[in-house]
UniProtKB/TrEMBL annotation:
Name of the protein in its database record: ABC transporter substrate-binding protein
Keywords (A to Z) from UniProt: Signal
Family: Belongs to the bacterial solute-binding protein SsuA/TauA family.
UniProt-listed Pfam families: NMT1_2
Superkingdom as given in the UniProt entry: Bacteria
Native organism: Metabacillus rhizolycopersici
Subcellular location: Periplasm
Signal peptide location: 1-20
Length: 329
């Protein structure tokens, strides 16, 4: 009996440290992003500044290179969380999904594209686009929908008042413009700033400033994920909120230095220029709450573009519980 008790005590001495060690291991979260962009700076700050580790999480990040691909990865359980445009959750819901995709933490709150002209224009007005050749984004994507929404706000019919080109692949739009196609082009950063530095084009307006607040990129997951991982979702949202506050308080230079490891092939000064431009126009959300007004603006833009399959209530596809908890609202 004493021998058995001794063996039992020895086994506890071996097992308990291992159990304690396992409890201290960070929880792995698989995240897929629609693309890898300086536009998502607060997310990369959370990665680089250790905010996820502070919450006991480790992030395994993959880039899907497309909204449809990011959503497919999420729906097929290739990722726990997707960073993608909120419109994709509406598309999924309209197809009758049994496991709705829920938006829970907003990252960016404006469009991220800029209007670039081939010629330098000192006093740009939107009516100068009339009669021009405009190289736009792919049909059905948020950049295209926002682009058309803004043009209509300035009394420009994108299908009648100018020659709208939308038959060029997303990845090939910059090279098409650089080779001589179009008088104007809608571009993301840092390409817009690179073109300006090279003299290939000139930034004359911001679609983000013109279109108002919209949940352009949001962290989302399937409803079943929240049912099983409520604590994890809250921790993830807390890390994002810390990063959003950090970005709001820091200079463009400090942010650029933080996220530089994410963009090894991009000059630090260029990263700073892009971050400054996005900060100035309020593209980075300062908290992860996706409110009703932003949700309705998104659907108005989709509806105006003829891409809204059905109008869906905010509470159906948006869960602000975690965002409001961590932000103290």
């Amino acid at each position: 009996m004493k021998k058995w008790l001794l063996l039992f005590c020895l086994s506890l001495l071996l097992v308990l440290p291992l159990a304690a060690c396992n409890q201290n291991q960070p929880e792995k979260i698989k995240v897929t992003e629609v693309t890898h962009s300086i536009f998502y700076a607060p997310f990369y700050v959370a990665l680089e500044e250790g905010f996820f580790e502070d919450e006991g999480l480790t992030v395994e990040l993959t880039t899907a290179w497309g909204g449809d691909k990011a959503m497919t990865t999420l729906l097929s359980d290739g990722a726990d969380i997707a960073l993608v445009g909120s419109e994709t959750s509406i598309y999924v819901q309209s197809q009758g999904s049994r496991d709705p995709v829920i938006n829970f933490a907003q990252l960016t709150q404006t469009d991220g594209t800029f209007l670039v002209s081939r010629e330098k224009i000192d006093n740009f007005t939107w009516d100068q686009l009339k009669g021009s050749t405009f190289l736009g984004q792919r049909v059905g994507g948020m950049p295209q929908m926002v682009g058309e929404f803004v043009l209509k706000q300035h009394d420009i019919d994108p299908h009648a008042d100018l020659k709208l080109l939308q038959n060029i692949d997303f990845a090939n739009i910059p090279s098409a413009f650089a080779s001589g196609t179009g008088d104007f082009v809608q571009l993301f950063e840092p390409t817009a700033s690179i073109f300006e530095q090279e003299g290939t084009g000139h930034i004359v307006a911001s679609f983000g400033s013109e279109s108002g607040k919209v949940p352009y990129t949001t962290f989302m997951s399937k409803e079943s994920f929240f049912n099983e991982n409520e604590s994890t979702a809250r921790k993830f949202t807390a890390a994002i909120y810390k990063a959003q506050q950090w970005v709001d308080e820091k200079s463009a230079r400090e942010i650029a230095e933080s996220i530089a490891p994410q963009f090894n092939d991009t000059d630090l000064k260029l990263i700073e220029t892009v971050v400054e431009r996005y900060k100035e126009q309020g593209s980075f959300a300062t908290d992860p709450i996706l409110d009703v007004e932003e949700w309705e603006n998104l659907q108005n833009i989709m509806d105006e573009a003829g891409e809204l399959p059905q109008r869906i209530d905010h509470e159906t596809l948006v869960n602000t519980t975690f965002a409001e908890d961590v932000a103290g609202k």
